[in-house]
Amino acid sequence: MNITDIKGTVKLANGVQMPYFGLGVWRTNEGQEVIDAVKYALDAGYRHIDTAAIYGNEEGVGTAIADHATDRKDVFITTKVWNADQGYDTTIKAFETSLEKLKTDYLDLYLIHWPVAGKYKETWRALETLYAEGRVKAIGVSNFLQHQLEDLMQSAKVVPMVDQLEFHPRLQQPALQQFAKQHNIQFEAWSPLMQGQIFDIPELKELAQKYGVSVAQLVLRWDLQKGIVTIPKSIQQKRIEDNANVFGFNIAAEDIALIDALDKGTRVGPDPANFNF
C-alpha cells in the first residue's frame, strides 16, 4: 500500500481502487446525525463511507452524498447484506432496497455481513450475479475467519476481494492476515479504535507522545502501514477531521513491532466462529 493522503487508494484483486481510509457509521443515528457525520467526512476529504443495512442509516448516508458537492463517482460506498436477508433471492432484494435508500444505481463494494452457516454460499452466489451484471464494482465478506473463507472459496466463482474484520492492537489475527494476503483478499479493519478502549493502553499513550499525535492517530496510521484499510467511526466534526490527520508522520519499524506485541486476541465484538443472530 502506497500511503499518500486521505484520498489515497489500494488496488483490489480486480483492479478497483478502494480508498484505504474511510468513515464507518455503525451506531450513528438515521437522520441529521448521520447526514452531518458523512458531510463532515466528505468536507475533510474522506472518499469512502461504510454502512450496512442493519445500521438503519443508509437513507441518511445517501442523502448526505447526494447533497454534497463531491461527485457520486468519487465516493466509494460500501454496504452489507444482513443475516436475516441471506439466501439468493432475498439478497438480491436486499441489494435493491439498499440501492434505493442510498440513492444510487450501483455500489462500490457489497459485503456479506456475517458468515451465517448454511446460507452464506447462496448469498455469495447472489453477490456474484450482481457483480457480473456490473451493479457492484467489488464484492467481499465481513467477519469471515479462515475456515469460513476456505469453505466459501470451494464453490465460489469469484474470490472475495475484501474481508472486513474486527482489528485493533489487541486483536490482530496474523495468520488470517497472511491467508488474506496469499489469496489477494484485502484486509479491512472495523472497530480500529476498539470502541475507545485503545485510549486505556499505556504503551499506546507513550508512543503517541513520542510522535506528537493522538492515540487514535497513532493506531490508524499503524493500520495503514500494515496495509489494512481502516474506517474509524465518529459523529463529531473535530474528531472526524483529527482521525484523518495521519499523513504527516511515519511510525518506525521498531514501534510498529511494539504495537504488534500488544496483541492478546481480545474481542470487543461478537466472535464470528460463535454467534447467534
Automatic annotation (TrEMBL):
<protein>
    <submittedName>
        <fullName>Aldo/keto reductase</fullName>
    </submittedName>
</protein>
<dbReference type="InterPro" id="IPR036812">
    <property type="entry name" value="NAD(P)_OxRdtase_dom_sf"/>
</dbReference>
<keyword id="KW-0560">Oxidoreductase</keyword>
<feature type="active site" description="Proton donor">
    <location>
        <position position="55"/>
    </location>
</feature>
<feature type="domain" description="NADP-dependent oxidoreductase">
    <location>
        <begin position="23"/>
        <end position="263"/>
    </location>
</feature>
<dbReference type="InterPro" id="IPR023210">
    <property type="entry name" value="NADP_OxRdtase_dom"/>
</dbReference>
<feature type="binding site">
    <location>
        <position position="113"/>
    </location>
    <ligand>
        <name>substrate</name>
    </ligand>
</feature>
<dbReference type="InterPro" id="IPR044500">
    <property type="entry name" value="AKR5G"/>
</dbReference>
<feature type="site" description="Lowers pKa of active site Tyr">
    <location>
        <position position="80"/>
    </location>
</feature>
<dbReference type="InterPro" id="IPR018170">
    <property type="entry name" value="Aldo/ket_reductase_CS"/>
</dbReference>
<comment type="similarity">
    <text>Belongs to the aldo/keto reductase family.</text>
</comment>
<dbReference type="GO" id="GO:0016616">
    <property type="term" value="F:oxidoreductase activity, acting on the CH-OH group of donors, NAD or NADP as acceptor"/>
</dbReference>
<dbReference type="InterPro" id="IPR020471">
    <property type="entry name" value="AKR"/>
</dbReference>
<dbReference type="Pfam" id="PF00248">
    <property type="entry name" value="Aldo_ket_red"/>
</dbReference>
<keyword id="KW-0521">NADP</keyword>
